Amino acid sequence: xxxxxxxxxxxxxxxxxxxxxxxxxxxxxxxxxxxxxxxxxxxxxxxxxxxxxxxxxxxxxxxxxxxxxxxxxxxxxxxxxxxxxxxxxxxxxxxxxxxxxxxxxxxxxxxxxxxxxxxxxxxxxxxxxxxxxxxxxxxxxxxxxxxxxxxxxxxxxxxxxxxxxxxxxxxxxxxxxxxxxxxxxxxxxxxxxxxxxxxxxxxxxxxxxxxxxxxxxxxxxxxxxxxxxxxxxxxxxxxxxxxxxxxxxxxxxxxxxxxxxxxxxxxxxxxxxxxxxxxxxxxxxxxxxxxxxxxxxxxxxxxxxxxxxxxxxxxxxxxxxxxxxxxxxxxxxxxxxxxxxxxxxxxxxxxxxxxxxxxxxxxxxxxxxxxxxxxxxxxxxxxxxxxxxxxxxxxxxxxxxxxxxxxxxxxx
Length: 412
Fold this sequence. Notes:
This protein has about 400 residues and is of the alpha+beta class. The protein folds into four domains: about 1-150, Beta Polymerase, domain 2; about 155-240, cca-adding enzyme, domain 2 (Orthogonal Bundle); about 240-355, no CATH class; about 365-410, no CATH class. It is about 55% helix and about 10% strand. The chain has 22 helices and nine strands. Strands 3-4-5-2-1-8-9 form a seven-stranded mixed sheet. A two-stranded antiparallel sheet has the order 6-7. Helix 8 runs parallel beside helix 10 (about 205-215), helix 13 (about 245-255) packs across helix 18 (about 320-335) and helix 21 packs across helix 22 (about 395-410).
């Protein structure tokens, strides 16, 4: 495996080099890229966020950034993190640290200048890879490079100790396996998660929900999801998400047919009905938007079939909205198996391509037709809209006005 990331576009970007130059001028050799940006580059994966570990204190990082003309925000100052923004590009710069005490949810940290101490407090060996200003990769744990090469997720040091520091690492273990593992889950890590599964009860529900969405956003999370069931992680943390067959089939369809992955559709697939969606939303404190999407995806007020005509499809999209229609199509497809793939795929495509039109009629036009202001205006508009939908949304203003006149006359 390559041991330098100097070839990466994000590494060579002028914003990256400008910030690194400023930090290096303050202390040569005192700052390195760390974590996901290094790991993903080595594994040929996309890099979203760029984190930098530094021997400089947060105050000094702020001084250096501002002197260079960059914005600096104390986004996690209690843990030594300053977000530096260079030409609208954010970088998280965190002072090297070691854990003083932990309680399974949060840690009290002290700053250090030792790269080994900073590495030892991280979760997995593949996440403790550092790259210096030249792009050379450093592997303080001695196993991170091999893990990245082999596609395996191994805790740093003793797995039980790492989990007791933060029980969210149980879910992170499965999430990272879903995204990066090329083979079976590490048995020692799995055993440690099983031993300490009760620690999940101490976590904030918001942190649990965030990890679940990330896990189900992986291209194929099925092996990790099944392993979560085997040691009762799902039963403990996600009891509502028990529709295994539909979720498994949905993931199969997405993998076999190279369909876009949407973690919220997968969450919906794992739920039995709208009641379970509301229960999950309430317990894990989902946003109103997330709750409403799951509830809409699991509705049964519109029949979804693979043989829907274009007219039926447009009526359904108009009533449900594009997102809810696509969710229901994917769930119906998963429930029916892998038959009629071409027909189901066409429905998914139309859900993305067809934009529901707006009824070409206003309240003022209704009143101009002789309908008095008040509840009757809404009644007339709804009747005209029903006709317009039945007529398959004609883009014909004159026909709509003629229908309005007929409806208004009938109500007079």
